[in-house]
Amino acid sequence: MRASTLHGAGLGLRRELIPDLKAVSDATLANAIDFFELAPENWLEMGGSRRRDLRHFAERRPIVAHGLSLNLGGPTPLDEHFLQRVKRFLDEYRIELFTEHLSWCGDDGHLYDLLPIPFTGDAVRHVAARIRRTQDILERRIAIENASYYVAPAIAEMSETDFIRAVLSEADCDLHLDVNNVYVNSVNHRFDPRAFIDAMPAERIVYLHMAGHYQEAEDLIIDTHGAAVIDPVWQLLDHTYARFGTPPTLLERDFNIPPLAELLPEVTRIRELQQQHPGLRHAA
Question: Tens-digit pLDDT profile for the chain (284 aa)?
């Protein structure tokens, strides 16, 4: 598969869903799901039945790799040994698109959270250098994802949109735009989510995420990926398609995972929204 062929609506390849996915015919699978996404950390060098399962789906649908632990904004050196392992994994399963979070998640050890990066010029240069090195090792362009966060960075020399644009330009990488993260942050930090979307560089956007969240309070949303997508986020996705075309879009569900039959209508809704914007198809 070439990255330029990736399109449509996808679903995360979660182990809880594998029995249901294997129970449907190849034709049904092809009509329901255009691609899968996985976290390479959960599948690296996996053997036995899990390896057979992954190969089964990789032969039938394109796969996107979405990393969890690269720590692009962190202070410690990049784990280049880990990146070499990821490269072998991407090559083995012919995965062209690899994305990671624009955040940091480790110092002396892994912090098991995605933390915001200060919006400063020094941080732009630091993160961009690490992205360029990552791309050199993987021998691929990568896309970085705008992250959700609950406490704004203490130091900010620029807006978040300017920070993202600066990193993309300095690193010469692509953007993985998480529509739900924009909505979550807009409620938690009180900004216009459509204006945020509009400020993103169209030429860099190659991939989108959609997800549900938990409403803790009127002014606090927790980004859980554990519920159905709500109407305001669907509306923001429609706005994104109208503005930028229809990049390949994933339904992200990582918690409270229901049966496949309950997830497929949301995948279908993504595809139906894409079809409402004819002539604007946008391939990764």
Answer: 334 579 999 999 999 999 999 999 999 898 999 999 999 999 998 889 999 999 999 999 999 999 988 989 888 899 999 999 999 999 999 999 999 999 866 455 554 456 778 899 999 999 999 999 999 999 999 999 999 887 777 778 999 999 999 999 999 999 999 999 999 999 998 999 999 999 999 999 999 999 887 677 777 787 777 789 999 999 999 999 999 999 999 999 988 899 999 999 999 999 999 999 976 555 45
- Which is nearest to 187 in space by CA: 228, 159, 149, 156? 149
Longest CA span, the chain: 53
How many helices, marked H, and strands, marked E, lie in the chain? 10, 12
The whole-model pTM stands at 0.92
Domains detected in the chain: 3-275 (3.20.20.150)
